[in-house]
Amino acid sequence: GQNIDQPTEMTATEGAIVQINCTYQTSGFNGLFWYQQHAGEAPTFLSYNVLDGLEEKGRFSSFLSRSKGYSYLLLKELQMKDSASYLCAVGLRNQGGKLIFGQGTELSVKP
Amino acid sequence: DTGVSQDPRHKITKRGQNVTFRCDPISEHNRLYWYRQTLGQGPEFLTYFQNEAQLEKSRLLSDRFSAERPKGSFSTLEIQRTEQGDSAMYLCALSYGGTYNEQFFGPGTRLTVL
To answer: Which residue of A68, A77, B13, B108 sits 20 to 30 Å from the alpha carbon of B26, by its own alpha carbon?
Structure first.
């Protein structure tokens, strides 16, 4: 079966760094995606990892270890606008590339 | 702007009524996906189209649900005899396919069944 786990909630302080972890067990792995979703809005794409290692994109970085079934999203220099839900998703090969999502991590950034 | 619009943005209906949602890509994408998202959960896959062909349907998509993409561009999702459990956000997503297959989500249609 497919299983993706991430913490339900996290709280961090403005200007700090936060790491959101995601573990997964899937068959037909074809990449790990991170999406950001503000309340009442659609998910927006943040990052994609298909090979092991760190991908950096501005204040956001994402890491993948395929052997451990593990990924994390690192947010630096947190801003209030970063308060949102962060969704970890696995893309599946040979199934049209559909995404299997975790439940999302609700991040609250405090002043 | 993700290149996809959805209509309506909100729909309130009574149990037992039929509803239809529409997804309109602004530009050409060969793959179109429908997902459903309930409060506090991540999106769940419902079905997807490669051009006009519907290639996979989740078991979440009961007989009351039907989706079409008649000309390989816009798509419709119909729910017949709605139930309160159908209340959710219905999201349409597009991709160009290929190895990367990044998906771009539309704003969604929020359905409330009374």
So the answer is: B13
